[in-house]
Amino acid sequence: MTGNNFTEVMFFILHGFANHPKLQISLFMMFLFIYLFTVLGNLGLILLIRIDSQFHTPMYFFLSNLAFIDIFYSSTVTPKALVNLQSIQKIISFVGCFVQMYFFVGLMCSECFLLGSMSCDHYVAICNPLLYSVVMSQEVCRWLGVIPYMIGFTNSLVSICVISTLAFCDASINHLFCNTTALLALSCMEALNTEMVTFVLAGFTLLRSLFIITVTYIAIISAILQIWSAAGRQKAFSTCVSHIMRVTVFYGSLLFTYLQLDNTSSLTQAQVASVIYTIVIPVLNLLIYSLRNKDVKNALLKAFQKLFP
């Protein structure tokens, strides 16, 4: 549309998987189960870390922060998606859409840098084990925990501010939630400057956090290779496996979704990828970090034995 010949959009329609009506009930049940498992499981993990003194270490401090992000990350998207799967009018208000996008982008960026903080913790534990308690002091851990939120929500605020200045010709979003790429595609105006700002912010978040993770793991791998015993190398590497798995899945889905050359192509694939990193990935915190951790499993077993003697 040209000039100012457009109407003001007061709400958006989240179509999601509306083009697959036979899957609505199945998706609703699956998303509900995953959401409840994510929230209850991560709350249990945070509580366990809080009350059990053996988990009062930097690694579990970061893990509890990751669980916190996963709870609210999933809660930002999944409840509204569940409502829309069972309703005819899949509407979200204009303000509600931007609030959802603000928290979604902020938490997503925060998780990127929190994964970077966790890689720094692994680096110190493996490369400088004798200085670990000195380097990873409570103050350092607090800053490594707070800085990801500061950067993430600052990036999100800038993105929301520039996108909110656009005028929108259409209200139909072919996703389960409001995201930047979907809203930019609905703009009536020339959005090159806005696209550049959001692209730079997304690139800063992805590349800077990936750079931190890559550099630390190069140093970690180098240190592991210098360990003479095979058992020692295996023990050192096993501490990083869970983190590597989480980073691979998380960044893989993000890169697939946000770095597509054509946002209109492979729409179904983009929807599936968005479901993976918004609904499925938060539950991986439990499956990857908790159920594979012997200390956590033993602590959970003791807790259940106390509750149900």
UniProtKB/TrEMBL annotation:
- Choose one Gene Ontology CC annotation of this protein and give it: plasma membrane
Q: Please name the PROSITE patterns in this protein's record.
A: G_PROTEIN_RECEP_F1_2
Topology relative to the membrane, per the entry?
Multi-pass membrane protein
Q: Which UniProt keywords apply?
A: Cell membrane, G-protein coupled receptor, Glycoprotein, Membrane, Receptor, Transducer, Transmembrane, Transmembrane helix
Q: Which GO molecular function entries does the Swiss-Prot or TrEMBL record give?
A: G protein-coupled receptor activity; olfactory receptor activity
> In which domain of life is the source organism classified?
Eukaryota
Instruction: Give the stretches traversing the membrane.
Output: 25-48, 60-79, 91-116, 146-169, 210-231, 243-261, 273-291
Question: InterPro entries, per this entry?
Answer: GPCR_Rhodpsn, GPCR_Rhodpsn_7TM, Olfact_rcpt
For this chain, the family text in UniProt reads:
Belongs to the G-protein coupled receptor 1 family.
Write out the function statement from the record.
Putative odorant or sperm cell receptor.
Q: Which PANTHER family match?
A: OLFACTORY RECEPTOR (PTHR48018)
Its protein name is G-protein coupled receptors family 1 profile domain-containing protein
Q: Which organism is it from?
A: Muntiacus muntjak (Barking deer)
